């Protein structure tokens, strides 16, 4: 269950990152409100997952999901470039996440 909670926390990190961009420096109310709520929920879920997952694993997976998710949203929704170097970097993040997951005993 901790892994599911951690994945949801990571997805919420992507949500808040996207709406942070949409908030235009916290000048737009609705995107700002979504950002704050998603941030709080993400951190709460991260802390719950850390009850049974190691700190290093939980935090790495959480930030990795956020980084990869923000990368994909940037490409698919915001029209950011998907050049070979950026895609390779994303692949390396995925490799690191897989290694972290398989090396964690819980």
From TrEMBL:
Highest taxon above the source species: Bacteria
TM spans (from-to): 27-46, 58-78, 84-102
Compartment list: Cell membrane
Keywords: Cell membrane, Membrane, Transmembrane, Transmembrane helix, Transport
Main location: membrane
One Pfam family recorded for the sequence: Multi_Drug_Res
Membrane topology: Multi-pass membrane protein
Keyword hit for Hydrolase: no
Family to which this protein belongs: Belongs to the drug/metabolite transporter (DMT) superfamily. Small multidrug resistance (SMR) (TC 2.A.7.1) family. Gdx/SugE subfamily.
NCBIfam families per record: PRK11431.1
Name the record gives this protein: Guanidinium exporter
Species this chain originates from: Ciceribacter thiooxidans
């Amino acid at each position: 269950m901790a892994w599911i909670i951690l994945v949801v926390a990571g997805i919420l990190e992507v949500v808040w990152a996207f709406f942070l961009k949409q908030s235009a420096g916290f000048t737009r109310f609705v995107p700002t409100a979504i950002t704050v709520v998603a941030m709080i929920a993400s951190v709460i879920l991260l802390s719950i997952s850390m009850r049974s997952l190691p700190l290093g694993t939980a935090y790495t997976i959480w930030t990795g999901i956020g980084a990869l998710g923000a990368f994909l949203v940037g490409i698919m929704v915001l029209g950011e470039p998907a050049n070979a170097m950026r895609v390779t970097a994303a692949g390396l993040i995925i490799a690191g996440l897989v290694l972290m997951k398989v090396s964690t005993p819980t």
